[in-house]
Amino acid sequence: MGQADMAIPPISDSNRLLVPMNATCSLITTCVLLSAGMPPISQCFFSSYELDLQKNRELSDPVLLIRQRAVKALCDYLHDHEHIAESINEGVISSLDKLLSDPDIPCRAYATECFVVLCQHELGRVAFLENNILSSFFKLIKLTEVDIVRLNAHKAIELLSTSPDGADQIVEHGYIPLLIDCARDEVVEIKLIVMDTLNRCLSANTSKGLDAHGVGLFTALLGHENAEVRSRASQNILRLCVDPVGKQKVLEDETIPALIGILTGDSDKAMASAAGALAFICTTTHGRYTALNAGAIPYLLKLVDHSNSRVRVNALKVITCLSETPEGRRILLDHLDVITPHEHDQNAAVAKHAKIAVSVITWKP
Fold first, then answer.
1. Is residue 206 part of a domain?
2. pTM beyond 0.85, yes or no
3. Chain Cα centroid distance, residue 116
4. How far is it, in rounded angstroms, from Cα 18 to Cα 107?
5. In whole angstroms, what is the distance from residue 14 CA to residue 37 CA?
6. Which of 67, 82, 189, 356 is surrounded by the fewest CB atoms within 10 Å?
7. Residue 103 CB: number of other CB atoms within 10 A?
8. Which residue among 163, 195, 227 closes a domain?
9. 81-102 pLDDT, tens digit each
């Protein structure tokens, strides 16, 4: 690229914003960036981003157009995974951290997209934690921020949660109450990402989710119109029910009838997750009798013949728990013909749990 091509045009209303990002962020990205008034430009500022100290300095340049073009070029550069280690070594993490507080929306949007790419790699996640970027991200996921920045920030946090250290740090930085609020208030696309993050974080620490009234929220989300939301709500209830306090809380919040409602007919994933949550809840006597009184057995018996093996396994687990009560055993003795064929199920896990269920149902003192 020649010197003439590299000349920086003067900033004006027609060229002060960059073309929208090439991130795959669905309609939210398009709508938000168009509303920000970002006109297209005919050519890129850099044909390639050769990482050096000068380019890194441009990320903090006082001239808006230079910052925009530098972070856009860096974002494109990072999409080649071979550039991740080099970029981290050159210190771009701290430069991007500063851009997270930039008053310009495209600068913040591109900076968060850079962190999405970085957090797809172990090196990037480690650098993210070592530079304490979580402290800067806290304000980016609040509803006062624009959609595209929130979406990118949540994507980066969700990727960070895939590592045990990342999930622990998210909890320690006090994110759980805010993420619970986001799961309640966000648009569906972001809500799903948030619930995936919570699922991993609650595996590491259930108490924070219980303290933030997570059971009540996820119980309400079991009635959401989106099947993916209902499925993730069931998964998060399952995580919270690992804790004895969570098992008691679901009884207080009438979660069991809502979970049984999912069993009456939903997506395979939602029904499997709901049955899995019930299996944890029904490990307590109170939980078993609540499920029995809510009429769970007929729906569970139908799921024993379901085509999805995960649904069959989890349904059999709940049936086994319910058969530990005299009332449940009496009912299930009349339906052994539904369960016994699955002792020879082609799926080993299904066959195993069918045998366990039959042995408990037919047990005699």
1. no
2. no
3. 14
4. 9
5. 9
6. 82
7. 7
8. 195
9. 888 998 898 889 999 999 999 9
